[in-house]
Write a structure and sequence with these properties.
Layout: H1 2-5, H2 10-25, H3 69-98, H4 105-131, H5 144-151, H6 156-184, H7 188-220, H8 237-252, H9 263-268, H10 273-276, H11 284-292, H12 321-324, H13 370-377
Helix pairs in contact: 2-3, 2-4, 3-4, 4-7, 5-6, 6-7, 6-8, 7-8, 8-11
């Protein structure tokens, strides 16, 4: 985890993550952490190179509505930047909380798999930018996602709620509309990437947040604290978990959760409406009342069909059912290539066996020296291909 977090290049973070995930799946790596080793010092901030110029959120590029090539590039660049931070956030969850919170092996498996998904998403989006004549780093961006991670650095409970059950769930709300924009303006390759790869896998990431937040509450059992200001109430377990979710969101998230919600996708991730709808209005008393009435199925699989959701786009949800039916199992999906589907048709990537992934990149000079790279890799051997060794793409035309 610390090797990835200390790697400056987002491209290299992605390659290392996919390779480590492969090593875990194939049994080359078997131990989540060394109980006898001293606890490592946590990073204030993951390493980042100067490829992307960071600005205040108010100064970030306007994304537009996807009607122009420039607008579609801006949207894809923003998504790639989010995915690059999502890689770090997954590894930070492992490094910061896995051992400290005495989490079980499945926690490590889930977040390693989430990190691998985010790495693949970033690489595919970066490759798509190159196909459109741009590159990751061509536009400015902000790091608001890491700012929220800093806010939750002392609490696994808060990290799961804010990053996975608020921010990533918000992505589920808006992504169908983004897919529709790309289709409407004729960019089917980008729409296919978002609809068939990123969207269904992001549902499983939200599910990981729901699953492990619920696990923490169940582990605490009767000692679960709802709110220091509340009088003692008689609540069943599901209602207690839902109410605790409301408390954590109000403490660590500014403002309300913005509707409309993608109820269908949220249901696939394990969300019941009692978790998030009360937080969409600025009414503390009403929200707490709704949370207390959450049914016994608040964190179980729902049969809600999503009808009435204003974010639902015809056809988008149909492709995700197969991938998300087993989201509560520890996530250990094979790479697209291992499954035989390939990546060349979407992102232009190639696969030549373990550790031979080559992805196009902007090629703005070495991102990390060979000596640094080997130091990061340690015992991982010669299987990685650093981004600095990948040849830059030729200019379009």
């Amino acid at each position: 985890a610390f090797r990835v977090l200390n790697t400056p290049s987002a491209h290299d973070k992605a390659l290392m993550t996919e390779e480590i995930h492969s090593m875990w799946r194939t049994g080359v790596m078997t131990v989540t952490h060394d109980l006898d080793a001293p606890a490592p010092r946590q990073l204030e901030r993951p390493a980042r190179d100067a490829r992307v110029k960071l600005v205040e959120p108010s100064c970030a590029p306007r994304l537009g509505k996807g009607g122009s090539p420039e607008s579609r590039v801006a949207i894809l660049h923003s998504l790639a930047h989010i995915e690059s931070w999502a890689i770090d956030l997954s590894w930070d969850a492992i490094a910061r909380f896995g051992r400290a919170a005495k989490m079980p092996r499945k926690f490590f498996e889930d977040f390693l798999a989430v990190a691998a998904d985010e790495a693949r998403h970033f690489s595919l989006l970066a490759a798509r930018l190159v196909e459109l004549g741009s590159s990751y780093g061509a536009l400015t961006a902000h790091d608001g996602l890491w700012e929220s991670a800093t806010e939750t650095r002392d609490s696994l409970e808060a990290r799961l709620v804010i990053e996975h059950c608020v921010h990533e769930a918000r992505g589920l709300d808006v992504l169908p509309g983004t897919i529709a924009k790309f289709r409407r303006f004729g960019d089917d390759p980008s729409a296919d990437l978002l609809e068939h790869v990123i969207y269904p896998e992001e549902i499983t990431h939200c599910a990981a947040g729901v699953r492990w937040f619920t696990y923490l509450q169940n582990r605490m059992g009767g000692a679960l604290v709802v709110d220091d200001d509340d009088e003692e109430e008689e609540l069943d377990d599901a209602a207690r978990v839902a109410k605790r979710f409301h408390v954590v969101v109000r403490k660590h998230f500014k403002g309300i959760l913005k509707p409309p919600f993608n109820d269908e996708a949220r249901s696939r991730a394990g969300f019941q409406r009692e978790w998030y709808e009360p937080l969409s209005v600025d009414d503390r008393a009403g929200a707490e009342k709704a949370g207390a009435k959450a049914g016994a199925g608040a964190v179980t699989e729902s049969t809600t069909d999503g009808k009435g959701s204003e974010t639902k786009v015809a056809g988008v949800g149909e492709s995700i059912a197969k991938k998300t039916d087993e989201f509560r199992k520890p996530i250990a999906r094979p790479r697209l290539d291992d499954a035989g589907t390939g990546m060349g048709g979407v992102g232009g990537s190639s696969w030549d066996g373990p550790g031979k992934v080559q992805r196009p990149g902007p090629g703005e000079g070495p991102q990390i020296s060979e000596a640094q790279w080997r130091a990061y890799l340690g015992e991982f051997g010669d299987s990685f291909v650093p981004h600095s060794q990948v040849q830059p793409p030729r200019s379009p035309g």
